[in-house]
Write a structure and sequence with these properties.
The chain is an alpha/beta fold and 320 residues long. The chain has ten helices and 16 strands. It has two domains: 155 residues, Quinone Oxidoreductase, Chain A, domain 1 (Alpha-Beta Complex); 123 residues, Rossmann fold (3-Layer(aba) Sandwich), CATH 3.40.50. It is globular and about 60 Å long. It holds the Pfam family ADH_zinc_N.
């Protein structure tokens, strides 16, 4: 397993061996088959989201049920299950998990897709269907459209009937995003605010989904139509700067929200329904998620380095 004993850069990540424990009441022992790597893992490692030390890392994986604790009736030995969110510790070959945090993986969904995209898929689900309900004909802006969440969300938004504008940071990523977006803007070579205003004939977009953070925040507000919503769901370039609420009034009586998946899957029913909706979208072909790169579990530090440098495309996987 991968553990850290202090916050810091990727060098603090250590590959360690620990004895297995028996599942306690309400727990399941998983033999993990694949593990997802997400930006939130880098926030945990760096201390942006502090952890008690020592700590594991990772919040997403797929595996097979190896043993059941007392009182677990929803699953049986051999079931394929996945999880996304909750306590850290996914960077491991075996893991004890609370049964109520697991979801069954349908037969049509591979271990790799379940492990590498469930967190992103459930994030896309709540962003598009609950934080701001995307409707037919709306124009939306999604930053980092070639990234793991971006690829899934942009495909899904088009299926919902939206006109999707995506931003990227390179020509290579523009080529990827063009498969999922109606319009693609390379913000390294174009002013994305000006381009959004051109595309929308000056009206602006109904919603901006921004997982980039500091680099795009102010421009994102300027892309919104009056009464539009700014959805800040990540900090890939650093935290959003402090701002006066009055700026929202000045720029069009805007709405601002900072949602997290945990608050949209608070109950067992919400978790199961959110995962099921994503798996349904994949199985029906509405969404075709991409595993862009994979690393051995012992090379998790390299995965973090590439993620920080934005050298990844689609979703990132650790092989067990």
């Amino acid at each position: 397993m991968i553990r850290i004993h202090s916050h810091g850069n990727s060098s603090v990540m250590q590959f360690e061996t620990h004895a297995l424990a028996e599942p306690q009441k309400g727990e399941v022992l998983l033999q993990q088959t694949a593990i997802g790597v997400n930006y939130i893992d880098t926030y945990h490692r760096s201390g942006l989201y502090p952890l008690a030390m020592p700590s594991g890392l990772g919040v997403e994986a797929c595996g097979v049920v190896e043993a059941l604790g007392e009182g677990v009736t929803e699953f049986k030995l051999g079931d394929r299950v996945a999880y996304a969110g909750g306590a850290v510790g996914a960077y491991a070959s075996y893991r004890l998990m609370p049964a109520d945090k697991l979801v069954l993986v349908p037969a049509k969904i591979s271990d790799e897709i379940a492990a590498g995209t469930l967190l992103r898929g459930m994030t896309a689900q709540y962003l598009l269907k609950r934080t701001f309900r995307v409707h037919v004909g709306q124009v939306i802006l999604f930053h980092a459209a070639a990234g793991g969440v971006g690829q899934i969300a942009c495909q899904w938004a088009r299926e919902l009937g939206a006109i999707v504008i995506g931003t990227v940071g390179s020509d290579e990523k523009a080529a990827i995003a063009s498969q999922y977006c109606d319009h693609v803007i390379n913000y390294k070579t174009s002013n994305f605010v000006e381009r959004v205003r051109e595309i929308t004939a000056g009206k602006g977009v109904a919603v901006v989904y921004d997982g980039v953070g500091a680099d795009t925040f102010e421009g994102s507000l300027d892309c919104l139509a009056p009464r539009g919503m700014m959805v800040s769901f990540g900090n890939a370039s650093g935290p959003v700067p402090a701002f006066e609420p009055a700026i929202l009034a000045q720029k069009g009586s805007l709405f601002f929200t900072r949602p997290t998946l945990g608050h949209y899957t608070l109950t067992r029913a919400e978790l199961v329904a959110t995962a099921a909706d994503y798996f349904h979208a994949v199985s029906r072909g509405f969404v075709k998620p991409v595993i862009g790169q994979s690393y051995a579990l012992k090379d998790a530090a390299k995965a973090h380095q590439d993620l920080a440098l934005r050298n990844t495309q689609g979703s990132t996987l650790l092989r067990v």
